[in-house]
Write a structure and sequence with these properties.
- The protein is mainly α.
- It has 2 domains: about 1-100, Rna Polymerase Sigma Factor, Chain: A, CATH 1.10.1740; about 125-190, Orthogonal Bundle (Arc Repressor Mutant, subunit A), CATH 1.10.10.10.
- The protein contains 9 helices and no strands.
- It has helices at about 10-20, 25-50, 55-70, 80-100, 110-115, 125-135, 140-150, 155-160, 165-185.
- Helix 1 (about 10-20) crosses helix 2 (about 25-50).
- The radius of gyration is 18 Å and the shape is globular.
- About 30% of the residues are buried.
- InterPro entries: RNA_pol_sigma-70-like, RNA_pol_sigma-70_dom, RNA_pol_sigma70_r2, RNA_pol_sigma70_r4_t2, RNA_pol_sigma_r2, RNA_pol_sigma_r3/r4-like, WH-like_DNA-bd_sf.
Length: about 190
Amino acid sequence: MGSDVPEKTDDTTITDWALAGGEGDHRATERFILATQLDVRRYITYLSADSQAADDLVQDTYLRALRSLPRFEGRAPARVWLLTIARRVVADQIRAKAAAPPIDGGEDWETAAEHSQPRHQPGFEEGVALSELLNALSPDRRDAFVLTQLLGLPYAEAAAVVGRPVGTLRSRVARAREDLIASLDRAGRP
């Protein structure tokens, strides 16, 4: 895939690409994926709190989205539609994990993979600290905060992703900020 998609593309353009992709325009589909993949990856990583599974979940999200693209009508921005699919993929994965019987014997593959991660890369500690702070939030507050503050979605679009009124989403973001500030204060931030 070429990299001729700007780093931050407006929602109208992304939606136009999704609609064209649904009509069979492969180049538009490619642009749609390139323009949205970073947001989808970030959202899934924070929602699932499992960076090891993020690649598979992102792939599942795009598989579902691409299968549904011919039926996408553009009533909501394509990025909102895609992040809603990502949310469902993560929810399905959480339900499947909860239903799966535990595996006995030795270290599981996720723990082994965590131990093999490079720990001395620039920004690693900050990324871990941010993940820990976000994971301490309630899922509803984390969801609202990640969508609006990290992914930059407008409140109305983020509310559509989570299926809640805008006022509820604003309240959750405000409370998430309060929780994060309190956590930083407890940790002794300067």
